[in-house]
Amino acid sequence: MTKESSIARVLLVLVFAPSGGLFGKAVADAAAGEEWWPWLVAALVWLVLSGLVSVAVSSRFEDGHSKDRSRDEHR
User: Fold this and answer.
1) Which of 1, 19, 50, 71 lies at 20 to 30 Å from 11 by C-alpha?
2) pTM
3) How far apart, in whole angstroms, are the C-alpha atoms of residue 40 and residue 30?
4) pLDDT tens digit sequence for 36-68
5) Alpha helices, DSSP H only, in the chain?
6) In the structure, what pLDDT confidence band is assigned to residue 16 with cuts at 50, 70 and 90?
């Protein structure tokens, strides 16, 4: 496994695992007749923010490799 694929897997877990727990809490609270929308909002905010961070990290690794490839092509 390359360094990039292991980082991508970690980012995938960090994005979706917590949001799944927050969505689950929203469903549990809705079933119990309690207010569920704050948990849903928290899950959506987590997905958006962590997704943006994930994209930024992924593109940074991609940019580094494209520079390395262009350098190798010119040799």
Assistant:
1) 71
2) 0.69
3) 10
4) 999 999 999 999 998 888 788 878 777 666 655
5) 3-31, 37-73
6) confident
The 10 Å Cβ neighbour count of residue 41 is 12
Cα–Cα distance for residue pair 25/16, rounded to 1 Å: 14
Evaluate whether 61 touches 4 at the Cβ level (below 8 Å).
yes
Q: Dihedral angle at the C-alpha atoms of 49, 55, 56, 61, nearest 10 degrees?
A: 150
Query: Which pLDDT belongs to residue 7?
Result: 77
Q: How far is CA 56 from CA 4, 52, 68, in A?
A: 13, 6, 19
Please give the backbone phi and psi of residue 28, each rounded to the nearest 5 degrees, phi first.
-65, -40
